[in-house]
Design a protein that fits this description.
303 residues, Killer Toxin P4, Chain A, five-stranded antiparallel beta sheet, 8 helices, globular, binds 2-acetamido-2-deoxy-beta-D-glucopyranose, GNK2, Gnk2-homologous domain-containing protein, GNK2_sf
């Protein structure tokens, strides 16, 4: 009897663990300058709702490579919107993130005409202006609050060079495919993780240009910082001293790069093999899952 009770408790623990396996996306930043707002029940609000539901429903499609852009309504109340999921996330994580974002953005940016919201897993934005045209696209910055303490100048250089190198790789993907690349490099006993991504519809030169623009802005946010993000509508770059993407999934999402022998700038930074190192939080989760399952098996064997 006791062990039955025990196993019931464990069963509920297990289902809890399964539920938390689809966690909310991890919110990082947003930009919704409250200089323009729309009024309740306006045409703009109706169009925005239409747009958000269109983004949400289209995120369930399988052949979109994590990207969708759409507009709703007519000038002057037209709303433009898009989402872009990180290149290595699965369709279900992407869908989950976009769904969450369409609701979250209305809470974090209430009544705002223009908004961009950014999570680890995806980005969602909308505007009354067509941000796909460069004139309305200005970068959004986000950075790790910590600084590197050893050779910050060399670190900046390593970041910029690694990001530039993978930009070429990401940009060369055929139009419509994921334009995405990640790379690790050694820095002072630590591992630098870098990522670049363009929307799949960009041409190779446009993608390369967009990424070069983003890299050139690193000084505006991220000088000597342990991590940083530069976000344009059409492309984004990110680096951290921890693995913020799933390297295994990244390898599967885009063709593996040809192995290159990298000789880094002046001192010791150099390429390391991109190796699937499991993300900490999820690793915690899966170990505890396995743990509970293991205990359950023991309990049932003893019944
Ligand atoms: C924007 O937000 C700031 C701070 O929350 C507030 O003081 C200001 O009144 C807001 N402006 C508008 C136009 O809502
Ligand atoms: C948004 O608009 C509604 C209706 O006009 C209003 O009640 C609410 O206070 C507004 N929220 C913000 C944050 O301005
Ligand atoms: C918006 O429309 C709803 C339902 O039609 C109504 O209850 C509400 O009072 C309206 N709000 C404003 C600010 O007009
Ligand atoms: C996708 O968006 C289009 C509008 O762009 C809409 O007509 C369609 O219903 C949406 N949903 C799906 C699943 O395609
Ligand atoms: C999506 O963006 C492209 C520009 O790359 C544009 O030509 C197209 O019209 C956009 N689609 C919608 C539905 O706005
Ligand atoms: C990383 O991706 C691989 C391949 O898609 C997957 O099997 C693995 O579970 C993922 N790891 C985490 C921590 O999500
Ligand atoms: C980047 O690529 C250049 C040329 O291919 C190479 O010389 C350099 O070592 C590479 N650096 C890094 C950090 O990947
Ligand atoms: C869980 O992961 C966090 C980092 O996300 C780490 O600091 C912590 O030690 C881990 N806990 C366990 C029990 O592995």
């Amino acid at each position: 009897m006791d062990s039955l009770k025990f196993s019931t408790i464990l069963l509920s623990l297990l289902s809890l663990a399964i539920i938390t396996q689809a966690p909310d996306p991890k919110y990082l930043t947003r930009l919704c300058p409250n200089t323009t707002t729309f009024t309740s029940n306006s045409t703009y609000q109706a169009n925005l709702n239409l747009l958000l539901s269109s983004l949400s429903s289209n995120s369930t499609r399988n052949n979109i490579n994590g990207f969708y852009n759409v507009s709703a309504g007519k000038d002057p109340d037209e709303v433009y919107g898009m989402f872009l999921c990180r290149g290595d996330v699965s369709n279900s994580v992407c869908r989950n993130c976009v769904n969450f974002a369409t609701k979250d953005v209305l809470e974090k940016c209430p009544n705002e005409t223009v908004a961009t919201i950014w999570y680890d897993e995806c980005e969602l934005r909308y505007s009354n202006r067509n941000f796909f045209s460069a004139e309305y696209d200005s970068p959004i910055f986000f950075s790790n609050r910590y600084y590197v303490t050893v050779e910050p100048e060399r670190f900046n250089q390593l970041v910029a060079i690694t990001l530039s190198n993978i930009s070429t790789r990401a940009a060369s993907a055929p139009s419509g495919d994921k334009k995405f690349a990640v790379q690790q490099a050694n820095y002072n006993m630590q591992i630098l993780h870098t990522l670049v991504q363009c929307t799949p519809d960009l041409s190779t030169p446009d993608c390369r240009r967009c990424l070069a623009g983003a890299i050139s802005k690193l000084g505006n946010c991220c000088d000597g910082k342990q991590g940083g993000i530069v976000i344009f509508a059409r492309c984004n770059i990110r680096y951290e001293l921890y693995e913020f993407y799933n390297a295994t999934a990244a390898d599967e999402a885009v063709p593996a790069p040809p192995p290159v022998a990298l000789s880094p700038p002046p001192a010791s930074g150099s390429e390391t093999r991109r190796k699937g190192k499991v993300d900490n939080a999820l690793f915690n989760l899966s170990t505890s899952c396995i743990h509970i399952q293991f205990i359950l098996t023991l309990v049932f064997r003893n019944l």
